[in-house]
Amino acid sequence: MDPGDLLTGLPDGLHRLRTRDAGALVAKVRRDAVVDFFAAEARGLAAMHATESMRAPRVLAVRADGIVLEDLGSGRPKRSDSERAGANLARMHGSLGDSFGFDSPGWCGDSPQDNTCCADGHRFFAERRLLAQAQRASANALLDESDLQCVERICGQLEHLVPESPPVLVHGDLWTANLHACANGELALIDGGAVHYGWAASDLAMLTLFGEPPSPFFAAYQSEAHIDGAWRERAPLYNLYHLLNHLNLFGSGYLGSVRAILRRYG
Fold first, then answer.
1. Which of 28, 44, 70 is the endpoint of a domain?
2. Which one is catalytic: 65, 71, 173, 203?
3. Closest CA to 155 of 235, 230, 240
4. What is the CATH number of the domain that holds 19?
5. What is the sign, positive or negative, of the torsion defined by CA atoms of 259, 260, 265, 266?
């Protein structure tokens, strides 16, 4: 049986299925999804899987209205699982790209993500991330003119605020819920629609935005990658993109968090 056939007739939502041929599967269905939504997730998961570092679910089928994935199960990570995941994420971040971006557009949640390639990381983050979200929020009256000017000032100063670093494969939407504990406790990356080549520190920063993994995770990452620990001080700058995205997706409840960062840097 073609795994894609399993999507037919299923209602919108997340479904755990057990099949005779393929075993346990997860089907995600969304009939109103735009044509490239699940294809972007499939591309991102495949790119992460290809690094042979962090675990990511194998894609078994993808259609415009859904995707079928390997079921990773659910469990509880031990300290050793957190340490292994931190080291493995560092190894994934060792996958260098030729430029910032990706070979196709993506999605960060329900927001389209422009991945047009750019050799300059500061320009990429300013134009494809911060300004894209800020201009959208301004057009929808979620930011006022002074807010937008603050974002523009931050973009103009990015090269002084954020050190240069190479484009590496990043998850792109790595809040703690996308660091999934499998049945055996191993931590895996799920929901790959925002995968692209960007700044490694942007993944680490988002892992601190809504809770964060335990300290052994970050200690193992730092031991493997030898990254400058100052990324934590710059985390609000990286996370401004995600907070603007949440402002656009979920409304004014995120405005205070956005403005706190604008006051600090803009």
1. 70
2. 173
3. 240
4. 3.30.200
5. positive
Tell me how many domains the chain contains.
2
Tell me the CA end-to-end span of the chain in Å, nearest whole number: 56
Phi, psi angles (nearest 5°) of residue 63 = -135, 175
Last residue of some domain: 42, 70, 98?
70
pLDDT tens-digit profile of 58-97? 999 999 999 999 999 999 999 999 999 999 999 999 999 9
Judgement on whether residues 144 and 208 belong to the same structural domain of the protein: yes
Residue 156 sits in the same domain as residue 34: no
Q: Are residues 127 and 63 part of one domain?
A: no
Total Cβ atoms within 10 A of residue 35: 9
pLDDT digits (tens, 9 = 90+) for 129-174: 999 999 999 999 999 999 999 999 999 999 999 999 999 999 999 9
Are 190 and 252 part of one and the same domain?
yes
pLDDT tens-digit map of 168-204: 999 999 999 999 999 999 999 999 999 999 999 999 9
Domain that holds residue 213: 79-265
Residues 225 and 146 in one domain: yes
CA dihedral 121, 122, 128, 134 (to 10 degrees): 160
Active site residue 173: yes
Q: Is the pLDDT of residue 4 over 90?
A: no
